[in-house]
Design brief:
The chain has 406 residues and is an alpha+beta fold. Helix content is 44%, strand content 10%. The longest helix is centred in the N-terminal third of the chain and has 37 residues, at 2-38.
Length: 406
């Protein structure tokens, strides 16, 4: 009897120990999740900078509202105020228009004007629109549990699903317009912005915990459909894949014109953004590895040395497009780091530039001053890829270093 009692005591103690351990780890997991959520206490204005920058710098008579003098804005910690603004600007189809500041403190009259335009579907991904608002609403819902923010975010995600082409790409505007915005758009971070949002959701970022499994399957399908689109649009015009254009025809997938000064070409700025995204993918498939390797080899090959772009003062010049008060010139400098032009000509791979008349020129000096000073013709973006390449290559492609093959 004595031994049986001791046996029961030991068994009871073991059960208690197991329960205590399970409770400890349960509390640890809860604490970790709580900590992750508690970090989400602000809405970062940086992703909205392109939108707000355009709103404050350009008075557009077609806008629902324009910025008022004084420009009062909400602080990043005023989450519900910002989120309410985001809901205000959301259109009936779930998307958002571009070039408004969701951090702006609006008057009642301004709010009425925005509300009255809900049915005008000028919804877009351009300038960081729509996917940025969805991400902010997810933060707002996580921080407040206010259901309207969750529902608006889900409506925005449905807009992303609806606007995707069957080939995996996204247009710049949806509903589709009868111009270049129908093209699959890599320009201004459109494609990458959407993909980064979907990747964050599929990676289980805590602010997206409200998305149910059925909806997650739809988002995963859209994400998986988009990857082959990136691979198929990588430009191969001389027998070897290089990089990408700003926009690709939505049917043929070939490089396409965007604005009149944005020609079909190899576009290093947008390509660098795409490659950095591809490099962020865990356990990449062979086609992704090959795409990164080919792009890295292209960035290495297309470097321009001994060149610096200098901004200089210039007489004030008013044009129908903008006011210019400076100019840009190319300076020879042996100490300058490598630089790249934004555009390289298809087939010849020469650096090119373009005027508003769509005529290609081969030097910055031959671009009209308003465009020369008002557009990013040179970029250092590929260097960001080259800086990350060695670590990525050792992890996912250790048998081949394309930088040593050059």
């Amino acid at each position: 009897m004595k031994y049986r009692t001791q046996w029961y005591k030991k068994k009871f103690c073991r059960k208690i120990s197991i329960i205590v351990i399970l409770m400890f780890f349960s509390q640890l997991i809860i604490a970790q999740k709580t900590t992750a959520v508690q970090k989400i206490i602000t809405i970062d204005p940086e992703p909205f900078a392109d939108n707000s920058g355009h709103w404050y710098s350009v008075f557009d008579k077609h806008n629902m509202i324009n910025a008022l003098p004084g420009k009062p804005r909400y602080k990043p910690t005023e989450i519900t105020c910002i989120a309410d603004n985001i809901l205000l600007f959301q259109k009936n189809n779930g998307g958002w228009p571009k070039n408004y500041d969701v951090f702006a403190k609006l008057t009642n009259a301004q709010k009425d004007s925005v509300t009255a335009a809900k049915e005008i579907l000028n919804t877009t991904f351009d300038n960081g629109s729509t996917y940025t608002q969805i991400a902010a609403l997810a933060i707002a819902y996580t921080a407040t549990n206010v259901v309207k923010y969750k529902m608006a975010a889900l409506k925005g995600l449905s807009y992303i699903l609806e606007s995707q082409y069957e080939n995996g790409g996204w247009p710049q505007y949806y509903p589709l317009e009868s111009n270049y915005s129908r093209c699959i758009t890599y320009n201004d971070g459109v494609f990458v912005g959407i993909m980064e949002l979907l990747k964050d959701i599929l990676d289980g970022k805590p602010q997206y915990g409200f998305i149910d499994s059925l909806f997650l399957e739809k988002l995963e399908s859209a994400y998986k459909k988009a990857i082959p689109c990136i691979i198929k649009t990588q430009i191969n015009d001389t027998g070897k894949p290089t990089a990408w254009c700003q926009q690709h025809d939505e049917i043929s997938l070939k490089p396409a014109w965007a604005r009149k000064f944005e020609p079909p070409s190899i576009c290093n700025k947008e390509s660098a953004d795409l490659v950095i995204f591809l490099m962020s993918i865990d356990h990449p498939q062979k086609e992704i590895i090959d795409a990164v390797q080919n792009a890295v080899a292209w960035f290495q090959k297309s470097k321009i040395y001994n060149t610096r772009i200098k901004t200089i003062p210039a007489p004030r010049m008013v044009t129908p497009f903008r006011v210019s008060i400076s100019d840009r010139i190319v300076v020879t400098d042996s100490t300058a780091p490598p630089i790249w032009t934004r555009y390289y000509e298809l087939n010849t791979h020469k650096p090119i530039f373009c005027n508003r008349d769509s005529k290609i020129v081969y030097s910055l000096a031959d671009v009209a001053r308003e465009r020369r000073d008002g557009y990013g013709w040179y970029t250092y973006a590929p260097q960001q890829v080259l800086d990350k390449y060695h670590e990525w290559q050792m992890k996912w492609a250790s048998d081949r270093d394309v930088l040593k093959e050059e």
